[in-house]
Amino acid sequence: MDVLRIILQVLLVLTSGFLTLLILLHKGKGGGLSDMFGGGITAGAGSSGVAERNLNRITVSFAVVWAIVIVLLGLIQKLG
What transmembrane ranges does the database entry give (predicted)? Predict the structure, then answer.
């Protein structure tokens, strides 16, 4: 159980970091902190719809993996 817990904790750290980066890569919807830090400048250039959809899919995939790891760690904690 200790090896599984360590593997899940490492996976949690990695998915948390990647999820944070992926969320920051999303195009701002306007008027918020993204515009304050330069998001408004790049909004004019725009990104293709396909790239944004792929970024959404990857972000959702990482979020699902992150949630599963959280649940598994909770179950291991409860059982162990």
Answer: 6-25, 58-76
Q: Is the pLDDT of residue 46 over 90?
A: no
Spatial contact of 24 and 59, defined as CB atoms under 8 Å apart: no
> Which H or E run includes 11?
helix 2-25
Cα 63 from Cα 78, distance rounded (Å): 23
Which residue did the predictor score with more confidence, 80 or 21? 21
How many domains are contained in the chain? 1
Q: Where are the alpha helices (DSSP H) in 26-48?
A: 33-36, 39-43
Handedness of CA 47, 50, 56, 59 (dihedral sign): negative
* 37's tokens: 């830090």
* Boundaries of domain holding 39: 2-79
CA angle (20, 25, 27) in 5-degree steps: 130
Q: Give the angle 24-69-61 at the CA atoms, nearest 5°.
A: 45
